[in-house]
Design brief:
- With about 350 residues, this protein is mainly α.
- The chain folds into 2 domains: about 160 residues, Talin, central domain (A middle domain of Talin 1), CATH 1.20.1420; about 160 residues, I/LWEQ domain, CATH 1.20.1410.10.
- About 70% of the residues lie in helices and about 0% in strands.
- It has 13 helices and no strands.
- Helix 3 packs parallel to helix 5 and helix 12 runs antiparallel to helix 13.
Length: about 350
């Protein structure tokens, strides 16, 4: 039974080379900067080419997986051909990504790079699985890895597509920023709901994860909120809700007024997305510090950090093209709400300083 193994291993040799080549492509994608492009850049042509290269990659993954799913195994010659096709498909994906110039916007570029990286990672995973699988058997891992490549390749059709009512709209930086803001809003909404749920009057924040016998006496100060804690935390909840409102309003403004028609507008959209990205981690840090035992100074510090991020988001949005005079009302209102809640947090923690 061992006699066939060396030949089988040898047949898979080209796959090892391809795996090495794909890892090099991945490393370059992770650190590399796309070029400025020598010819005039056309967004529709770019999306069309990207979609095609993702489709070809998906087909090559299927061919490779099928070839190694049942006996007889492909000959060394066939394996070389399959490996070459896989490598060419991945190089084509990377090449098209490199067409996308910086000037189109960093948010859009990051989205395309993430999708491209996922496809390359999926293909590396598939070659790994085939190289490590017992000869001539289709493993569960191989099925999962193949599905992983398909899924990654389908991502391109899920990338933001510009105005949804226009089937021919191609994703630009405005669509990418809308998509990024919507993702941030989803995460912040979840965090606010979770904290509201935990703060329900009389509810033990650790009730679902700690048994009584583990802690012994339930009057342990470390596991519940005092009345003073609850007062401080209600102001923190005010800040968390202001975060949600900020993201909602900025998202609506970018949808309504955001444009990717000039370098200045594209850069302003990126600035909005970059600072809005800081909201969710700041909300998380504040939420974590709100669990008992509450250290009022840590809460104050995290609240101040979140308040400063929110003020910055509002300031950057207000001075950009996404906030014409018609939008100034809510910017003012939310700035006031952030200050109001932050001042309450300061008052509640004043004695701790």
């Amino acid at each position: 039974p061992l006699r066939g193994r060396p030949a089988a291993m040898e047949a898979r040799e080209p796959l090892r080379d391809v795996r090495g080549a794909l890892r090099a492509v991945l490393a370059r994608l992770r650190e590399g900067e796309p070029g400025e492009g020598r010819e005039p850049f056309e967004l529709p042509r770019f999306w069309d080419a990207l979609g095609q290269t993702f489709q070809v990659t998906s087909q090559e993954a299927t061919k490779l997986s099928l070839a190694f799913s049942r006996p007889p195994l492909p000959s060394a010659e066939n394996c070389r051909k399959l490996s070459e096709d896989v490598q060419n498909a991945i190089l084509a994906v990377a090449t098209v990504y490199y067409w996308l110039p910086k000037g189109q916007g960093t948010t859009l570029r990051k989205m395309v790079r993430d999708a491209t990286t996922e496809v390359v990672e999926g293909m590396i995973q598939l070659t790994d699985t085939i190289l490590n699988a017992p000869v001539e058997s289709l493993s569960q891992e191989q099925l999962i890895s193949t599905g992983g490549v398909w899924e990654a390749c389908e991502q391109v059709s899920n990338l933001p597509r510009g105005a949804s009512f226009c089937p021919f709209a191609f994703a630009d930086n405005q669509a990418a920023v809308v998509s990024a803001l919507a993702a941030c809003l989803g995460v912040v909404k979840d965090a606010v709901e979770e904290m509201e749920h935990a703060l329900v009057e009389g509810q033990d924040p650790y009730g679902d994860i700690m048994e009584d016998e583990e802690l012994g006496f339930r009057g342990n100060r470390d596991t519940y909120w005092s009345e003073a804690d609850r007062q401080l935390l209600s102001s923190c909840m005010g800040l968390m809700k202001a975060s949600k409102a900020c993201l909602k309003k900025v998202l609506t403004a970018v949808k309504a007024h955001g444009k990717a028609d000039s370098p200045e507008h594209i850069a302003q959209l990126d600035d909005v997305a970059d600072i809005a990205n800081e909201i969710s981690p700041s909300v998380d840090e504040l939420a974590l510090s709100m669990y008992p035992p509450v250290n009022p100074l840590a809460v104050r510090l995290n609240a101040a950090k979140l308040a400063s991020v929110l003020k910055k988001v509002l300031e950057i949005a207000k001075t950009s093209h996404v906030c014409p005079p018609s939008e100034e009302g809510w910017v003012q209102f939310l700035t006031g709400a952030v200050d109001h809640n932050m001042n309450k947090v300061k008052n509640f923690t004043q004695g701790q300083l």
